[in-house]
Amino acid sequence: MRFFRWLYNQYIRSTQIRLTSSFLLVLLPLVFVSLYANDRSRQIVLDQTLSQAQNNLDSQAAHMDLTLKNVEELSRMIALDKTLLQMLDQAGPELTPQSIIQFTEILNRLWHVTSISQILSEISVYHAKSGTVVSTKNGAKRITLADQKEVYEQLALSSGIGGTYVLPSQKIMKDTTFRELSGSEMVSLVRTMDLSAWSKHSNLLIVTLNKKKLNELILSALPSAGTHLYLFEKDGNIITGSDQPDSGTGFINVKKEGMLRIQAELPSYKWSLVMLQPEQEIYGQTGVVRTYTYLIIVISVLLSLILSWWVFIRIASPLDRLSYGMKELSSGNYDLRLDTTRKDEFGYLMKTYNKMARHQKHLIEDYYEQQLRLANTELKFLQSQINPHFLYNTLDSIYWMVKNYEAEEISEMVLNLSRFFRLSLNKGKEAFTVEETISHLHYYIRVQQIRFLDSFTVSYQIQEESKTIPVYKLLLQPLVENALLHGLERKQEGGELIISSYLEEEYLVLSVQDNGDGINRERLDYIQQELGSLAQNKAAILHDMERTIHDLYGLRNVLIRLKMMYGPKADLQLESEEGVETRITLFIPLDSCKSEFIMDGKERLA
């Protein structure tokens, strides 16, 4: 009991012991997991190998199934070839010169097919009337023995119009095998040529597969040199395999000890692919993994002991210095600096401490200056609220005085101007809906129409979905003023002002368009360059807020407010054609269009 109490006290008092214990505790689960992983690795490797091999074998079986279907389709095309059927029908029971020419033409056609498909080694046609076999391998040969003709007739009956695959060792009739009949050493597809008149006297088509190409197809699925792969037909007879057995030679033992057996069926046939892979090839990798695991565990424990001591030495000294610096800073000593040449996290912390001390000192020194600036800003804000109120009240008084003298145009002008200032105040509200903004803007435009003696008309193209979206107040007024002063002012009549609002993807689009004088190319390039540099430079926006620039004042003002209130995605585009029209378009992100979106400009820019 005393030993455990002493050990606990040492753990509490010694940072080194705590660090060492922590490192070892971190390693402990890894050790158990590693040991457990070794026990499970054999089964995991086996499962993964079987799964991968099964997938590969299934894929290979599907590919081979497709190949056999292609062969079957090719044989169907030959069997339905009208020219071949006509030549076979015209050839009589005797070998006349005309029959020999026809057989030669048939042979040429069969050669052409074998040259196209490499999976075929031989194509033969048996002409029942003359008993002649035309083969791409042996040429034309006439069958004279009645027994052989009877075998061909039996083969025609058994194969039918659909065709069937026949092994060389398969018995056709009595003791006669297909190898003895055709001389073929590989599986062949046999079908009748006369699909419309099937009988035992039908002409036969025999398509023999290329053993070499079929083996290459099988060998491509072998994962290793020690693996064997065999192709069996439905009765279990072997067709071909990786160790080159004779086709149809009989059965092979696929349940060998120490070999893993994987089987895949050909979807359209009753054939199967069987792969035998040595277990040692799979499990041999786990022994190496086990050895490395034990070695890593031993090395990890040793490294944990060494690293715990090294970390303790490296941490203790900088922690003491940082602790001393924090105490001095909390007592008001802002001039203390911690010297360090370290490049690690502690070096970063010490450098950050030095920056924090300097920053804290600067904050205290700048506090009073900031308070003075704040007071000055509040005073200007108060004045900006008083002046519009004064103007609104004065204009209202003027309106009633003019009304008494029945000066309708002047009274309408004063009334619209008064309403414009009243909505501008709006009890300090900074946001309007698009619909309210257009109504507010119309008061200003009506004043200008009276001023310019109705020399221009105004039209509003406001999309219904955009009407309820809130926007910052007085955002369009500088653009309208710009269009009137620089575009429509010199037009005596026929002026047109178009205000548009619509949604485009993730943006609210506002535009002001006029058919005034337009802007010449040189001036337009200059304006676009100035606005582009202002939009891309946050520092330039903040700098423009603190200085007075008369050139492009309205456009700069709108662009700065856009960036401040809606962030960097907001944009202003200017398009103009001299003597034709000018169009200014605002793009405002919809995710920033909220009723409570009005924020401090510098915070928006950040």
Brief sketch in words of this structure:
With 606 residues, the chain is of the alpha+beta class. The protein is built from 16 helices and 19 strands.
CATH architecture of the domain at 429-605: 2-Layer Sandwich
| CATH superfamily heading of the domain at 429-605 | Histidine kinase-like ATPase, C-terminal domain
Number of helices: 16
Text of the CATH class of the domain at 429-605: Alpha Beta
Order the strands across the largest sheet as they lie in space: 3-2-1-8-7-4
Number of strand segments: 19
Extract low-pLDDT stretches.
Answer: 377-387, 595-606
CATH T-level topology of the domain at 429-605? Heat Shock Protein 90
Report the major sheet: 6 strands, antiparallel
Tell me the overall shape: flat
Mean pLDDT: 77
Supply the helix-strand structural class: alpha+beta
Gyration radius, in Å:
48 Å
Q: Into which percentage range does the β-strand content fall?
A: 15-25%
In whole angstroms, the N-to-C terminal distance is: 61 Å
Helix content: 55-70%
